[in-house]
UniProtKB/TrEMBL annotation:
This is GIY-YIG catalytic domain-containing protein. Residues 1-80 form the GIY-YIG domain. PROSITE patterns: GIY_YIG (PS50164). InterPro entries: GIY-YIG_endonuc, GIY-YIG_endonuc_sf. SUPFAM superfamilies: GIY-YIG endonuclease. Gene3D superfamilies: GIY-YIG endonuclease (3.40.1440.10). Pfam families: GIY-YIG. It comes from Belliella pelovolcani.
Length: 99
């Protein structure tokens, strides 16, 4: 089963959302846009989330560790650097290969 860590971006709020899914990325984003999740879900605040970055991971455990790591960084600067710096992107993925 394919598993993805994904990062959505909403320009109007200048905010990122980091998530984990076993659905296809297209299906997951459509679910967010159609507001299929709880009204308390952060993604309900916006209506035009765009996929900013995604990581295909080996399994759910690895994905969860990666998702939590990115969330703990609490930095849009860090997230932007992942997209711009392929070496950093690869090193982050390699860091979580053992999970």
């Amino acid at each position: 089963m394919k598993t993805f860590v994904y990062i959505l971006y909403f320009e109007k709020l200048n905010r990122f959302y980091i998530g984990l899914t076993t659905l296809s990325l297209e299906e997951k984003i459509n679910n967010h846009l159609k507001k299929k999740y709880s009204k308390k879900n952060f993604t309900q605040k916006a209506d035009d989330w765009k996929l900013y970055l995604s990581f295909e991971v080996l399994n759910y455990s690895q994905g969860r560790q990666l998702e939590l790591f990115i969330k703990r960084m609490k930095s849009s600067k860090f997230i932007k650097s992942l997209k711009e710096d392929k070496v950093k992107y690869e090193s982050i993925l390699n860091k979580f290969k053992s999970f």
